[in-house]
Amino acid sequence: YRDTFFKVRQPYGDVLILPIKYVDELKALPRTMLSFDAAVDERFLGEYTLFSHSFSGLHPNTVPRSLNYNLTRSLNGLMKDIHEETERAFQDVIGSCEGKFYEWFKWTEVNMWQKLFPIISIISGRMFIGKELCHNPEYLRCIVEFTSESFQAKAALFKWRPWLRPLVYKFLPEVQKLFKTYETMMKIMASVVPARLAAIEAGDPSEDMATWNIMNSPSGKSSVKIQAHTQLILSKAAIYSTTLTGSHILYELAARPEYLGPLRDEVDSVMSTDTVPWLSKTSIPKLKLLDSFCKESQRMNPLGATSFTRKALQDIVLHDGVTIPAGTHLTCSLIGTLRDPEIYPNPDVFDGYRHLNLRSQSLEQESRHQFVSPSLDDMNFGYGPNACPGRFFVNNVLKVVVTYVLQHYDLKMPEKKIMPGNIIMPNIFGPDMSQTFVLRTRRG
């Protein structure tokens, strides 16, 4: 169905799958005609699951502006913080994987999904709320649990007819658990918000999302209720997807030992010329093989089956006369594009050098085939004005985490095990969360 429209039935209604050729035309339309936020609100029942900005009165531009304008521009100065939290998180969560007796005993079996989630949460928390609170157990529990609790609440609500949901949602255990997490976050932010406001007033604002979200909120929108909501929205947008993507990358590394040597050589070469003892923002773009490996892992293991999710708020007439009626939910097939042999030769074969080779063809291809570059051939990070605003932060965190693993651990799949298959949930592809690989601390 590459060049045709078709529909897929979903719990919230039919979704129109449209050909990629229309995306450039649609991305230029204003939000009053075609809305990402409206689609997400209905898809995730945002008014009950806290996915909706309107739940707390959070302005929809606040978090994207903080990510695009503040966090991305501040990444160079924050790389030391990311490195420090990565090192501490790995030591706290995984520690040394070094045995003392026989060769086989030196390896430690690790469920990377279970380990990577708290690691990514701690690193992200440093950027979200600062050094003082990013290790707070209650704060970490909130940002770790929020996404899964939201999904559970959504699933529970979809069992009820739409007209009954406003009547029953407060009595559902899944929703009650979710709102308890929100109440905990409000208690945490009750001390954070006044302190951040005072620091801003004194001309000494801290460099974290808690401060930037307050600064980027319209007048009267810096309440504890709203700022607690922003922290949870951030965790949903950043931590869950980063952990999924990072788990896939590390499983691919464990299953493909032939890449470990070349990747380590690249990391050693780049870091030997850096002026600081950590991976700086200017060094990360030089890790071209690692970038290619990460992009190929994401091509083979996308976060979902579709991308460019929108809802038509008005009738839309396309250039060829096709009309999309108001109220239509629409999206594009991501997996179809990523496995299209006309775009990616041998699409079912993992090739860690694929995007590195494509980048070498021309200056245009150099920028088109980077991990963070959205294109019609790869919409893993979305496309157009709603492309993921935090993708540069995600890129830097993942590169620091993967280089840390390469430098400090040997890794491989357990004996007689192969690369684990993905678990397919409604529009979400995730690693088999029960699967493991083995680590040992590198020597020498």
TrEMBL record:
Keywords: Heme, Iron, Metal-binding, Oxidoreductase. InterPro entries: Cyt_P450 (IPR001128), Cyt_P450_E_grp-IV (IPR002403), Cyt_P450_sf (IPR036396). CDD domains: CYP503A1-like. SUPFAM superfamilies: Cytochrome P450. The keyword rRNA-binding does not apply. Signal peptide: none annotated. Coiled coil: none annotated. It holds the Pfam family p450. Heme binds at C388. One of its GO terms (molecular function) is monooxygenase activity. Its cofactor is heme. It comes from the Eukaryota. Belongs to the cytochrome P450 family. This is Cytochrome P450 monooxygenase. The lineage of its organism: Eukaryota, Fungi, Dikarya, Ascomycota, Pezizomycotina.
